[in-house]
């Protein structure tokens, strides 16, 4: 019996082709924005990137004759609760390692008045980052990979892709690169698990947004190597960067890695039927 390379047993286009269509639509919308930005000596803002990824996702869902809610989850009270719970977990993901560093005297904080002035723009930035990245990494592509290959291959592929997009970030060298790479890979698995458990992007969005906001916008650490002006400014003791994460952020620290591993294990053991 021959296998149709284009259609599955239900006479529907195979998921691999849908992923290719997504990237073609994404390129068709992104390239004009890149050209326009280059002509005006500007960058394509992360907010515009989020809009472009959302547009490509929506077009693909229209072509599949499926609702956008299939990707994002039904917007209701449960969606908001999962968003809030994700935010609490994302906050803990950064607060716990920061507390460990403080208890051992490796970091202390100073109030940063300039961070208070820039906080509204920081809030918007991290909301846009979370939306753009979760739509791209836990949205249409991820969900088609799950449908086509299963959860574990989809998780590993998207975590590798997520890490790949961060490898050229500032400060990705030496021990920092080693610990940050492991942390970022596992964090992607956590975000993916939160979608798999809830069938909604609400919790991954809350996790991603509050982890970045707590790390950079409030505690003042770098976020994936990008300097941030937070409400507080961390002052480091003379200890190795792999212990505190240094300017890269808590993502490159041993306490940060330990915390994300614990949260990953908890998500693995989470029986969502007992919470709904």
Task: Describe the structure in brief.
By secondary structure, the protein is mainly alpha-helical.
What do you see in this structure?
- The protein has helices at 15-39, 46-64, 69-72, 77-103, 113-137, 140-149, 151-164, 174-198, 202-218, 241-244, 254-269; strands spanning 107-111, 232-236.
- With 276 residues, it is mainly alpha-helical.
- Helix content is 67%, strand content 4%.
- Strands 1-2 form a two-stranded antiparallel ribbon.
- Helix 1 (15-39) packs antiparallel against helix 2 (46-64), helix 4 packs antiparallel against helix 11 and helix 8 (174-198) packs parallel to helix 11 (254-269).
- It has 11 helices and 2 strands.
- The chain is globular, with a radius of gyration of 20 Å.
- It has one domain (75-274).
Name a few traits of the molecule.
about 280 residues; mainly alpha; about 65% helix
Topology:
Layout: H1 15-39, H2 46-64, H3 69-72, H4 77-103, E1 107-111, H5 113-137, H6 140-149, H7 151-164, H8 174-198, H9 202-218, E2 232-236, H10 241-244, H11 254-269
Antiparallel strand pairs: 1-2
């Amino acid at each position: 019996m021959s296998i149709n390379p284009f259609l599955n047993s239900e006479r529907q286009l195979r998921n691999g082709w849908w992923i290719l269509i997504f990237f073609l639509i994404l390129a068709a919308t992104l390239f004009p924005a890149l050209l326009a930005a280059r002509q005006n000596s500007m960058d394509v803002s992360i907010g515009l990137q989020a809009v472009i990824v959302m547009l490509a996702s929506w077009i693909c869902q229209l072509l599949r004759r499926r609702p956008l809610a299939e990707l994002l989850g039904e917007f209701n009270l449960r969606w908001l609760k999962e968003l809030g719970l994700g935010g609490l977990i994302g906050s803990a993901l950064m607060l716990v390692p920061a507390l460990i560093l403080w208890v051992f005297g490796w970091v202390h904080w100073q109030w940063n008045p300039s961070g208070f002035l820039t906080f509204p723009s920081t809030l918007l930035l991290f909301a846009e980052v979370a939306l753009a990245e979760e739509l791209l990494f836990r949205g249409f592509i991820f969900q088609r990979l799950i449908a086509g290959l299963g959860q574990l291959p989809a998780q590993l592929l998207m975590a590798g892709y997520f890490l790949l997009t961060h490898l050229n970030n500032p400060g990705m060298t030496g021990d920092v690169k080693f610990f940050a790479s492991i942390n970022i890979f596992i964090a992607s698995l956590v975000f993916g698990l939160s979608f798999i458990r809830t069938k909604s992007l609400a919790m991954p969005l809350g996790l991603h947004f509050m982890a970045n906001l707590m790390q950079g916008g409030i505690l003042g650490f770098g976020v994936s190597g990008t300097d941030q002006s937070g409400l507080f400014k961390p002052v480091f003791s003379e200890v190795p960067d792999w212990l505190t994460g240094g300017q890269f952020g808590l993502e490159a620290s041993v306490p940060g890695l330990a915390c994300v591993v614990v949260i990953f294990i908890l998500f693995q053991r989470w029986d969502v039927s007992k919470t709904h």
